[in-house]
Design a protein that fits this description.
The chain is an alpha/beta fold. The strands form 6 sheets. Strands 11-10-7-12-17-14-18 form a 7-stranded mixed β-sheet. It has a 3-stranded mixed β-sheet with strand order 1-2-3. The protein has a 3-stranded mixed β-sheet with strand order 4-5-6. 36% of the residues are buried.
Length: 349
């Protein structure tokens, strides 16, 4: 039996049973479940104390004091999103449920403190000029624009470092001196930061040809994407697969601002008023296995979609992994403004 499973009690359990469960697990919560482990309610130690103060007896059924709709996380939700729920609601514990509301786990803030160090490299594409941001990037490279109190690139690196990554390559070109002077060799942050210096723009993938041959899969992310993603989970999923590339994707919805007419010849069959179209888009995050570097041409502008298309044409395995949680591509002034509005609540909350 796993330690968290001791927090599970049946619908016939008494207050005494619930207290014993909480005492054994140290998690501060007992979860009332049916025979199939479907969640019926949750009892914190505070719930139990309040019920006893109101006059409940130790042999009374505990389910009478249980919260039937506790805050829970979904199975498969990434680590960053799960931690965000704990923080947003100031929770000491969070049940994990599958699609049928069966309890499959229980996490606490302490589960996020012991983060293993990852030896896998992270490559951040930070060489773009950011022409769509016009005056904002006239004197500042896009990854060094401030969102909140620090540059975008600083937030990206800090987020990854907080997940155990220590080895970074920054692909730089436009006003590279600003990036290099800001980060140096990373030693002040306890990191190893090196640079892929582009003599000319090489796209979102071409700079990888400047890397030494990697010994293990590595993460590639754009330097203008702010995301609360669990990169460590994405990497582990890649390692467990037979894929040579993993493309992180997310759902993107776009509303058509007009009525869309459906017709059969000249006969109108239906009008859909301002329908919403849903697409699966690249989140600008990838995991690549070392052999993929052999496919990247040297000193040539080469974007990531071209690499993926080349791999597919060669019938090399490419998988996708869906990511949830906050995501913003800082490509246009409106998105940059939105990211600044979001920053405190999302990244510092």
């Amino acid at each position: 039996m796993k330690a968290w499973e001791r927090a599970l009690i049946g619908p016939e359990a008494t207050f005494r049973n619930a207290l014993e469960s909480i005492d054994q697990t140290g998690s501060g919560i007992a979860l009332v479940v049916d025979a199939d482990r479907r969640l019926l309610g949750a009892l914190s130690d505070g719930d139990l104390r309040r019920a006893l103060i109101r006059g409940a007896g130790l042999e009374d059924k505990a389910i009478g004091a249980a919260n039937p709709n506790p805050i829970c996380a979904d199975q498969g939700q990434d680590r960053a999103a799960t931690l965000a729920i704990l923080r947003a609601h100031s929770l000491r514990q969070l049940p994990i449920l599958d699609a049928d509301r069966r309890v499959v786990g229980l996490v606490t803030p302490a589960d996020f403190l012991d983060i293993p160090v990852r030896t896998n490299a992270v490559v951040i594409m930070a060489g773009g000029k950011g022409e769509r941001l016009a005056e904002l990037t006239r004197d500042t490279p896009k990854p060094m624009l401030r969102v909140g109190s620090k540059p975008i690139l600083d937030t990206i690196v800090s987020n990854l470092a907080g997940q155990g990554f220590r080895n970074f390559w920054l692909a730089v070109n436009y006003r590279a001196d600003q990036i290099e002077s800001h980060f140096g060799d990373g030693s002040d942050m306890g990191l190893d930061i090196r640079y892929l210096r582009e003599d000319k723009p090489l796209g979102t993938c071409g700079a990888l040809a400047l890397m030494p041959r990697a010994d293990e899969p590595f993460v590639v992310t754009n330097g203008d994407v702010l995301a609360k993603a669990d990169y460590s989970h994405v990497l582990d999923s890649h390692l467990q697969s037979d894929a040579l590339a993993t493309v992180v994707v997310r759902d993107y919805q776009m509303q058509v601002p007009f009525g869309v007419v459906n017709a059969n010849g000249a006969q109108v069959t239906r009008i859909d008023e301002k329908p919403t179209q849903s697409y699966t888009i690249s989140a600008g995050v990838y995991v690549l296995s070392p052999t993929v570097l052999d496919l990247i041409p040297k000193n040539t502008f080469y974007d990531m979609p071209a690499l993926i298309a080349d791999m597919i044409a060669r019938e090399l395995p490419v998988r996708l992994q869906r990511a949830e949680g906050y995501w913003m591509d800082i490509g246009r002034p409106t998105e940059y403004a939105q990211a600044n509005a979001d920053f405190g609540a999302v990244f510092e909350g």
